[in-house]
Amino acid sequence: MKKPFDADSNETVLKYVIAIGVSTGGPRSLPLILSQLPADFPAALLIVQHMPSGFTRSLAERLNNLSRIRVKEAEDGEIVEAGCAYIAPGDFHMKIVRTRKNLLAVSLSDEPPISGHRPSIDVMMKSLSDTGFTNIIGVIMTGMGSDGSKGIVKLKKKNKAVIIAQDEESSVVYGMPKAALQTGAVDKVVPLTEIAQEIMKIVEVQD
Questions:
Q1: C-alpha–C-alpha distance, residues 13 and 81, integer Å
Q2: Residue 27, preceding bond cis, omega within 30 degrees?
């Protein structure tokens, strides 16, 4: 059973944060990752899927129905908790900030697009890096362009994050994973079907 979301509760300890960036092919690829994660997954997932306004809520609802963890469209000001995946709303940047109680929280922004993207993967990852949180896994998946490459470099250098890139064969479009690989920050290149297993191995949980 999925744990009810309670923004005022610290009952579920946030041990890891998984920062995922994905574009073309994402709506078909994300279910293969989220559906494999156990209900008591001790990490939060922050997902930027390049998608227009109005489509991310239905995507989150569909993924929630397929997953044991909770999946939702991110809301401004909400606390980031383990066992939940937060999808950036279309046409908003999703930033992560520290609260006065030293928790991680979502901050939505309508600042100008970055390299044509809002939401931007780089914006999400750079803001997460600035929180000082250290147990981070960055994942760059199928998509066109290079969004996320600057973000993973910062996560690697500042937060010692583990970076995973989707392999070429399983990518619908290999642009983003290829650009990520070219930065030298990627630790593992794996097919789509093995991304969830790699994440669980690092987080040290079993399905």
A1: 8
A2: no
> Span 16-200: which CATH code?
3.40.50.180
- Given the residues 29, 50, 67, 129, select the one marked as catalytic: 50
d(CA 36, CA 69): 9
Question: pLDDT tens digits, the chain, 207 residues: what are they?
Answer: 444 434 444 345 799 999 999 999 999 999 999 999 999 999 999 999 999 998 999 999 999 999 999 999 999 999 999 999 999 999 999 999 999 999 999 999 999 999 999 999 999 999 999 999 999 999 999 999 999 999 999 999 999 999 999 999 999 999 999 999 999 999 999 999 999 999 999 998 755
Is 93 known to be catalytic?
no
Query: For the chain, which residues make up each domain, given as ranges?
Result: 16-200
Please give the structure tokens belonging to residue 64: 């929630």
Q: Which of 23, 67, 129, 171 is catalytic?
A: 23
117 catalytically annotated: no
Residue 23 annotated among the catalytic residues of the structure: yes
Catalytic pick among 122, 146, 147, 171 = 147
